[in-house]
Amino acid sequence: MPHTWRPSVTVAAIIERDGRFLLIEEETSEGVRLNQPAGHLDPLETLEQAVTREVMEETAHEFFPSALVGMYMSRYSSKRRGTDVTYLRFTFCGTAGKEYDQPLDHGILRTMWMTRDEIAACQERHRSPIVLTCVDDYLAGKRTSLDLLHTHSSVFEGGLSLKTDVT
């Protein structure tokens, strides 16, 4: 059976407060990098649940998504590992709620609040080439209603199956 190519689905959060954006500094296989709170979509969750979970894990903040800023596709080539991965990223904007006293996810060194200009000044440290693009799209007012997203109930039924190619 031929291999079907699939991108890795990720979510990210744009959280602005007083002209500053919440970023994380994290240890990666390519060194210390900056990113929005972001991560992979897990089985049995909606995109909104995924971004809410990732923000809590990486920043210890509640997150309340209010809109979808955009859907982005990028490719990451690890020179060190010799691998190539394409990511399909759903970037949300919203507000941060309560901050909890809990450890941050493994590999997260700290959270930072940075201006757009500070983010632009350190692009060589960005985890993804679309970190700044997402901020710029947010600042340009790009927003789509969360009503656009629909998760069918089949996502939550019957547990996990590795043979679920539904088209």
TrEMBL record:
Keyword set, alphabetical order: Hydrolase, Magnesium
Co-factor(s): Mg(2+)
The Nudix hydrolase domain, residue ranges: 4-138
GO MF assignments: hydrolase activity
EC number: 3.6.1.-
InterPro entries: NUDIX_hydrolase-like_dom_sf, NUDIX_hydrolase_dom, NudJ
SUPFAM superfamilies: Nudix
Broad EC category: hydrolase
Keyword Magnesium found: yes
Keyword Magnesium (UniProt): yes
Recorded coiled-coil stretches: none
Family under the similarity heading: Belongs to the Nudix hydrolase family. NudJ subfamily.
Subunit structure, as described in the record: Monomer.
Protein name per UniProt: Phosphatase NudJ
Organism: Massilia soli
